[in-house]
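Just scan my protein:

. . .
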Amino acid sequence: MATAVTRHERMVGLSPQDRMQENYLDLNTDRFAEPGMLESVLNTLFVRWEEKYGITDIEESYSQRFKNIIRSAHGWAIERT
């Protein structure tokens, strides 16, 4: 009898780009020693998610952008069920 593969098991071995496509937020894959690296990674993720969920009113702060993404993703998930 086959066992179900967990989401975590599917993510093992994927590149950071592939993880981003799966909406998987893993900040442990990179070292953020250089100034602006974390902001660059977050912005790349946020832009992709804002496009996916149709967010057009882009906020300035990362915290507000993330909050809007979570709200939109939640609404999007409910519509799909």
